[in-house]
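Q: What would this chain look like folded?
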Amino acid sequence: MNDLSEAKALVRAHHAALARATPDTVAGALSQHMAADALWRGMHPMHEQSGPEAVAQAFWTPLLTSLSRVQRRQDIFFAGQNSLGAGGLWVASMGHFLGLFDQPFLGIPPTGKLVMLRYAEFSRVENGQIIEQAMFVDLLHLMAQADCYPLPGMTGAQLVQPGPMTHDGLLYSPQAPEDGAATLDLINRMIGAIDLANKSDTPPPPEVELAAHWHDDMLWWGPTGIGATFTIDRYIAQHQQPFRTQLGHRTFNGHICRMAEGDYGGFFGWPNLTMECTGPYLGLPPSGKKADLRVVDFYRRDGDKLAENWIFIDMLHFLNMQGLDVLAQLATRGR
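A: My prediction, written as structure tokens:
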């Protein structure tokens, strides 16, 4: 319990240092709590970086240059031991970066208005330092707010996504170990059901598969490009059915971290899945190319079933591997 509390305190201090940083000082702020050779994983086009200076140059300096008066508006915060073979103690954070969008970011044009950029962060803590971190940001969400959304449409809803309905996602204080164990067990059983359905020649009906682990009024806060859905029936129609029928030849690559604390849990992979666009997915024609899905999932358990799920996918990387370079299109349009 002390280890979790110390890890949380370290990550909160890291967040506080970043809140005080400017584009010119953010590398120094990162180095206060991040190891000199820390592995950092970010969305396309940042990808993998090593150490605070590289992380600042790739992500934080451009972000703080583009967005002024940045606030981290955190909705979920928890920690746990990684339940997978790699082990380690991780701290997870999820919410939005809020700021005034005053300068271009990765070629996305500024609005001069308030924007909210969805983020999910996993930090591995060891010997009083962050030695590994993953930072997912929903760039299509920012593009939608800047009126330059690049895809034909979405099957779900596009909106600024709230945190947990219960408003109890910030687990600053210790939680009962048995609660985290129950959450992790439920997540593992749900993943197992998906795996069985994918492998079976006669899978159970989607309604039956989902009802075993989800409340009927489940909220699935999907990434921009897919969108959010509400209730099992709408989740099937607006995400699961297109995903399972229009993406084929899939390979599950596993997760890097999977953990839980209290009623909250989650995982991320790099990549989780590799698959081929075999149908008109996201309104785009079949590419015939294999592409990776780097995915984050956060969950809220309510009793013996899952109630809410927040998902981040590196959509720009997935599209780029199929030959659609969204950022290059933006640059061309701007000329």
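The chain is about 30% helix and 35% strand.
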